[in-house]
Structure to design on (309 residues):
């Protein structure tokens, strides 16, 4: 018998859900938002694209090229400010590959300034997914620095930002746990393997790091399952120690249903977590979740752990 994980609102008490509906181009979708706390402000970046995922699992669009943009809003007391586009500068010309723009931008703060990690597919005609580090540029723009991949033929996606005092780093994979450190000028990278975790090789990021009072970091990760009805995503919270060891994990949960749900960001706001996610590649949402409710659900985790309740 298969147990269906609970919804987020069932899993934790006093959860409130807020749709994110900034104006976008006509017929473009809103989904996969990320979030960052920066100098006292809470900034949400909502991805918008020129396609929609139908209930039957098909992508519909009126263009021969898939295009993505990111819209920024400031979130305060449940209200979003007027939107503004995230402008990204690059020195390269996009290739002919028919997927253009920066996808699933994960915003994060480093040295008091806005940064991001995003996926790009138009670097060359192969369409291989690359990671772009977005660093501060001119006139409130971000500037693209293409990151060196540990495996140039691998599609790179879903790196989880984990800023540290020694530079820009991210969780590259969760099982085995591997942490990548990026040179923000050259894009060169160094990969450090921390060994198996037991989370399962299908575990992906997810949100960026949320700093905890004990010096550790909390993340939201996901697993994608292929069912007869289509893809379904399950999520869980996991924590890392300050030195990068897996400490604990929560049971799996659903967000609002059972399908394509994707957490792309999380931030701490006092005693709450703000978790941002997309539904069906056509909706963007923000959940306010009591931090203590999440911490109470975490259980010590090792490669041989089974967390089910």
């Amino acid at each position: 018998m298969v147990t269906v994980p609970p919804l987020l609102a069932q899993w934790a008490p006093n959860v409130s859900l807020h749709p994110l509906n900034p104006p976008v181009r006509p017929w473009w979708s809103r989904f996969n938002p990320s979030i960052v706390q920066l100098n006292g402000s809470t900034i949400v970046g909502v991805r918008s694209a020129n396609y929609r995922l139908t209930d039957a699992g098909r992508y519909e669009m009126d263009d021969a090229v898939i295009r993505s943009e990111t819209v920024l809003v400031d979130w305060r007391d449940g209200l979003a400010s007027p939107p503004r586009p995230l402008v990204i500068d690059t020195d390269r010309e996009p290739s002919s590959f028919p997927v253009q723009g920066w996808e699933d931008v994960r915003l994060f703060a480093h040295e008091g300034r806005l940064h991001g990690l995003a996926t790009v597919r138009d670097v060359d005609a192969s369409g291989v997914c690359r990671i772009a580090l977005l660093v501060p540029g001119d006139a409130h723009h971000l500037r693209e620095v293409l990151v060196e991949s540990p495996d140039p033929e691998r599609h790179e996606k879903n790196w989880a930002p984990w800023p540290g005092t020694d530079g820009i780093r991210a969780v590259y994979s969760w099982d085995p746990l591997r942490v990548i450190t990026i040179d923000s000028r050259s894009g060169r990278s160094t990969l450090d393997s921390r060994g198996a975790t037991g989370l399962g090789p299908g575990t992906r990021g997810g949100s960026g790091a949320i700093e905890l009072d004990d010096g550790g970091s909390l993340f939201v990760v996901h697993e994608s399952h292929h069912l007869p009805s289509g893809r379904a995503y399950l999520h869980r919270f996991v924590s890392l120690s300050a030195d990068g060891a897996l400490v604990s994990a929560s049971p799996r949960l659903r967000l609002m249903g059972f399908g394509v749900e994707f957490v792309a960001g999380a931030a701490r706001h006092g005693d709450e977590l703000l978790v941002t996610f997309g539904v069906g590649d056509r909706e963007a949402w923000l959940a306010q979740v009591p931090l203590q409710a999440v911490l109470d659900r975490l259980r010590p985790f090792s490669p041989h752990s089974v967390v089910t309740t």
Summary: The domain at 8-300 is CATH 2.115.10.20 (Tachylectin-2; Chain A). The chain has one domain: 8-300. The first helix runs from residue 8 to 11. The first strand starts at residue 16 and ends at 19.
